[in-house]
Design goal:
Elements lengths: L23 E7 L6 H12 L19 H6 L6 E7 L2 E7 L7 H10 L2 E7 L4 H4 L2 H11 L4 E6 L8 H12 L7 E3 L1 E5 L10 E6 L4 E4 L6 E3 L3 H22 L2 H8 L6 H13 L4 E5 L13 H11 L9 E3 L5 E3 L9 E10 L3 E10 L1 E3 L3 E6 L10 E6 L3 E5 L2 E5 L1 E3 L3 E5 L9 E4 L5 E2 L9 E7 L2 H17 L4 E4 L6 E5 L2 H13 L5 E4 L6 E4 L3 E9 L6 E11 L6 E5 L11 H14 L10 E9 L7 H17 L3 E15 L3 H10 L3 E7 L4 E9 L6 H8 L4 E12 L2 H12 L1
Parallel strand pairs: 1-3, 1-4, 4-5, 5-11, 6-11, 32-33
Antiparallel strand pairs: 2-3, 7-8, 8-9, 9-10, 12-13, 12-24, 14-15, 14-23, 15-22, 16-21, 17-18, 17-23, 19-20, 19-22, 25-27, 25-28, 26-27, 29-34, 30-31, 31-33, 34-36, 34-37, 35-36
Helix pairs in contact: 1-10, 7-9, 13-14
């Protein structure tokens, strides 16, 4: 073990602190829903003394479950930070949601972390490793983030340790199977009545020691002859993998030459290989027995985190200064302040609370800081750029906030009273403003049309939606000018439910969900002539206007073109703009099913006027009537928006996705392999068929697919579908 430093911790409400950045480890727990991340956080918190006993996720009593929605749903829906201390180091565990709808919270956890523990259920098999887990693994690999794998649920009947480690090597290893190897082998107990053998201990392949956890404590026991034989081959393979990952060529030559490598050298190389992100050890974990302090593998995981994972100083992040130049930040408490808000939440008593990762400098309570950032992670003009005074600085711990006077570079804390700051914003010294380069967030692709439930809700809706979007950058708000609907774009149905619940519970706004409408258009398919006659005599000033127009179709994207071909002054010059105004007003209202008319040329060629009774209003009405009469004599097409989509899917589900796109009236433009075992499919699909595609694709490909969409054009809708929509709108 390393020498104890000045980091301090305690249970029963005491605050975990660190005096230097090298005493801090920030670790995100990543994994599919139900893999046991939160249970592992509880087990590690008990082992370090951060809590006296573990809570229960299913009861909503876990230290990570501090949101009422989480307690009702019995699953994590947002990022939580649980600090603890081990071997003189402060460990900030960032427990991330495993459900795909909350990937925004997961990305925030990765932003705040310097390393990741991928928690995988051994009972889930291939399904737990492929799909979203593989995508996140590759995302971490692209930025060189160190990763380790923790296998859980080895005590279930379907679990197979050897098979699961091979699966991890095949899928996550990407052809480099020696980069993912177990540090320990499980020790099985006697068979129970159900024929299953529980895991009661670990064989440490490096030290060649056996540790018994059956009594809830980390107890060393002598290795049996069978265990020694079992570890021999696995140990040789592990040592070769560690040396290869550390790229210590001299040591490899010594090992191949038959020299016995001492344990201290191997542990040093292991730490180097893990910190470099080139070797990914596989560990084992299980919660402690009732009343016990140490769960299976907790000591080994904590040792790896404190000794093998990098310090914040080893995780470079860049910022843009006032001169527009980008430069890496220095993880030094004495440097200028640079911190980032990785998540935002609202507390009914405290107000807005921001979880902040400090990358440089020191953040102190009651300081005035400069806040700047881009909504949605853009890189153009700053959306907000101002000074704000922060309130209290505290260490988050479940529902508790433990007061701190300050937070040094490398730490993760909560701050209050940042009324305008949003997730992703940068906090910096007011006399030295900075902007940390934003991280990417997934585009929300599930539209939800909403409206206020009552007049009282209508008054609070704007404020509630603004706060919701500020808290969650994966929610996008749209006021659609074509359909006049207020649309929330979410990542999935679970994400939608949480967003609506937060509107109701946190912000006191009740909304109704309505059918999402797609912006359709109308156009002329054939040329037609129409006559508009508006003649009325009612005793006083009369109304007199007659105009004749020809309407002909134009290419897609042409809009409405108005042409004046009147000769002989049959329509006076001053009333020709009135006819155009009337035509355009009627086009905006629609002529067949109530959708805007586009892509036509309207030619005014004849008309009549009265010297006394003609007026601007009369010719506007006549222009609209003429367009309607022309529409009655022509064939009218409905135009629907078509999106260009790109689906990235596991090769196992390419056939299903192609068939589904065809059933949605889609056209496949091409396919190409991307990465290991995945294919990108490009196609064009009508947007009417994409309203629930975010949900349907996830179900179809078992979470092993993602897609993007972009508007391409409007094109004619099939006649039977168009007729059905007209009948619905006019019925």
């Amino acid at each position: 073990m390393v020498e104890r430093t000045t980091a301090s911790a305690g249970a029963n409400g005491k605050t975990v602190t660190a005096q230097r950045p090298d005493e801090i480890r920030n670790v995100a727990l990543v994994g599919h829903s139900g893999s046991g991340k939160t249970t592992l956080v509880e087990a590690l918190a008990v082992a370090t003394g951060a809590v006296v006993r573990a809570g229960r996720v299913e009861d909503g009593t876990s230290v990570s479950d501090y949101d009422d929605i989480e307690q009702r749903q019995h699953r994590s829906v947002q990022l939580s930070v649980v600090p603890m201390a081990w071997d003189g180091r402060k460990i900030n565990l960032l427990d991330t949601p495993g459900y795909a709808d909350f990937v925004g919270e997961l990305r925030a956890g990765l932003r705040g972390a310097d390393a990741a523990l991928f928690v995988l259920s051994a009972a889930a098999g291939v399904e737990g490793v492929s799909g979203p887990t593989l995508a996140l693994w590759e995302e971490c690999a692209s930025v060189g983030m160190p990763r380790a794998i923790v296998l859980t649920h080895l005590d279930t009947a379907r679990a197979d340790f050897e098979e699961m480690t091979e699966t991890c090597r095949d899928i996550l290893g990407g052809g480099q199977s020696e980069s993912i190897l177990p540090l320990h082998l499980p020790v099985y107990g006697d068979k129970g009545a159900d024929g299953h053998r529980p895991v009661i201990g670990l064989i440490d392949l490096l030290t060649q020691h056996v540790y018994d956890y059956s009594a809830g404590s980390h107890t060393e026991t002598p290795a049996s002859r069978e265990q020694l034989a079992l570890m021999a081959q696995a140990r040789d393979r592990l040592i070769e993998g560690i040396i290869a990952g550390s790229e210590d060529e001299t040591l490899m030559d010594r090992y191949i030459g038959g020299e016995e490598i001492d344990l201290e050298t191997l542990e040093t190389d292991l730490e180097r290989a893990v910190a470099r992100g080139s070797f990914h050890p596989v560990l084992i974990a299980a919660p402690p027995p009732e009343g016990a302090r140490q769960g299976l593998g907790t000591v080994e995981i904590l040792d790896l985190v404190t000794r093998g994972f990098p310090t914040p100083a080893e995780h470079p992040v860049s910022a843009i200064g006032v001169n527009g130049r980008s430069a890496p930040l220095v993880c030094d408490p004495g440097a200028p302040l640079a911190a980032e808000i990785i998540r935002t939440a609202s507390d009914p008593y405290v107000g807005r609370m921001s979880v902040v990762r400090v990358f440089s400098g020191t953040l102190r309570a009651d300081d005035t800081v400069h806040v700047c950032g881009h909504r949605g992670g853009g890189t153009g003009t700053l959306d907000h750029d101002s000074d704000e005074r922060i309130g209290a600085v505290s260490a988050p711990f479940g529902k508790q906030q433990r007061p701190l006077g300050h937070a040094i570079a490398g730490d993760i804390v909560c701050v209050t009273k940042l009324s305008r700051a949003e997730t992703g914003d940068t906090l910096s010294a007011k006399d030295s403003p900075l902007l940390i380069e934003p991280w990417s967030m997934p585009d929300p692709l599930l539209p939800i049309a909403i409206r206020a439930h009552s007049k009282a809700d209508e008054d609070k809706l704007s404020l509630g939606l603004a706060r919701l979007v500020a808290e969650d950058p994966t929610v996008r708000l749209e006021q659609n000018p074509d359909t006049r609907q207020l649309v929330l774009w979410c990542l999935g149905e679970a994400h939608r439910d949480v967003a609506l619940e937060r509107l109701r519970a946190r912000f006191g706004v009740q909304v109704d969900v309505t059918d999402h409408q797609v912006a359709l258009r109308e156009t002329f398919a054939t040329t037609a002539v129409g006559r508009g006659r508006h003649v009325k005599q009612s005793g006083g000033h009369g109304q007199y206007a007659i105009c004749e127009i020809e309407v002909e179709p134009l290419p897609n994207g042409s809009g409405i073109e108005f042409v004046d071909k009147v000769v002989g002054g049959v329509v006076p010059r001053q009333f020709i703009p009135s006819v155009e105004k009337g035509v355009r007003a009627q086009a905006a209202r629609g002529i067949s099913a109530g959708y805007p008319l586009v892509d036509v040329r309207v030619t005014l060629f004849e008309g009549k006027a009265h010297s006394v009774d003609s007026s601007d209003a009369a010719f506007q009405l006549a222009g609209g009537l003429a367009l309607r009469e022309a529409a009655a004599a022509a064939r009218i097409n409905l135009l629907e928006p078509v999106a260009e989509v790109r689906v990235v899917v596991s090769d196992d589900y390419v056939g299903q996705v192609l068939g589904d796109l065809s059933s949605r009236r889609g056209r496949v433009l091409g396919t190409e392999p991307v990465g290991s075992g995945r294919t990108a499919i490009r196609g064009e699909v009508p947007e009417l068929e994409l309203r629930r595609y975010a949900v349907d694709l996830r179900s179809l490909a078992h979470g092993a697919a993602t897609f993007t969409r972009a508007y391409s054009r409007h094109e004619s809708m099939p006649a039977p579908l168009a007729d059905a929509i007209r009948a619905k709108n006019t019925g």
